[in-house]
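A note on notation is needed here, since sequence and fold are reported together in a single record. The reader may check this reading against the record printed directly beneath this paragraph.
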Amino acid sequence: MPHPSSSPSSPRQPLRLARVLLPFGLLLLVSLLVLHGRPPGARSGADPAALFLSLSPGANASIAADLRALTAGPHLAGTPGAAGVTAHVHARFRVAGLRTLTREYAPLLSYRAHASLALLAADRSLLARLSTDEPADPDRRVVRPYHAYSPSGAAVAEAVFVNLCREEDLAALDRLGVSLRGRIAVTVRGCGYRGGVVARAAGKGAVAVLIAGHADGGVERGAVLLGGPGDPLTPGWAAADGAERLGFDHEAVRRRFPTIPSMPVSADTAAAIVRSLGGLALPRAGRPSARSPYAASRVATG
C-alpha cells in the first residue's frame, strides 16, 4: 500500500521539500496570454470558445506552447517535475515584465512506494495477480495510482462489494446479514470525498478499502486525509522552514489520518473481484442482493 513520506511510526524521517509558486500562478499565466492576445474591441461577454478561436495565430501558438510545457509530464509536488513547472512559470512571468518570487515550504507529502493486489483461493493459493496501474498508461508515464496519506499496511481477507459505501449501502448489507468486519471493502467511486468512504468502511470494521474508477474513466488518484486540506503538521499556518510543527502523536494529527489502508483501482480490476464473488459484472448502481456471495474469495493487498 502507498504510504506518507513520514508516518506515525517513523516521525524522524525527513519531510520532502516542495518548491511552490503563488497558487494562482498557472491560471494567471494563461489569463495574461489571453488578455494580451485579445482582438481590439472584443466584448467582455463574448463566448469564451469563440474568443479563444479569434485570437491571433501568435497568441494561440504561445498559449499552446505553455500548456504543452505545463502538461508534458507529471509534476507531483516535491518532485523534479514540479520544480521544472515552477521554473517555467517563473520565467514566463519575468518575460511578461512581472515582479516574481518563489517561496520554499516543507509540508508533509505522501508518495507511492509499493502496491500489489491478488486474488487468493480459500486455502490462500494464488488465483490471479491483479493490476494496480492505470489501464490507459501501460508505459507508466504518469503518476501511478495511489491514495495520498493512506497508512502503509497489508491485508489478506475476504472481499465484500459495498456499492458506493454510502450509509444506505452499509445499512442494506446489515439487513442481509453481511458483515464488513475483518474484510476488504470494494466500492465504486461516486459518493463524496474518498476519505469519508474509507472512514465509513473502517467504522464497520473493514481492514482495507479498494475504490474503483468508472468503466468509462481511469483510476482516480487523490488524498484520503481527513479534516480538510492543508499540512496536518502545521494546521492553520505555513509549513515554512523553522515553523512550529505538531508531533505525529498529537491527537489533532492522529485523527486526520485514516486508520486502515486504501487503494484506487481500475474498473477492470474491481470487476475481476466482483466476478469472483459471483457477480457477472461490476454493478453500475449495485444494490446488494441476497443471491450474491459477497465473501466468496480472498483478496491480498500490500
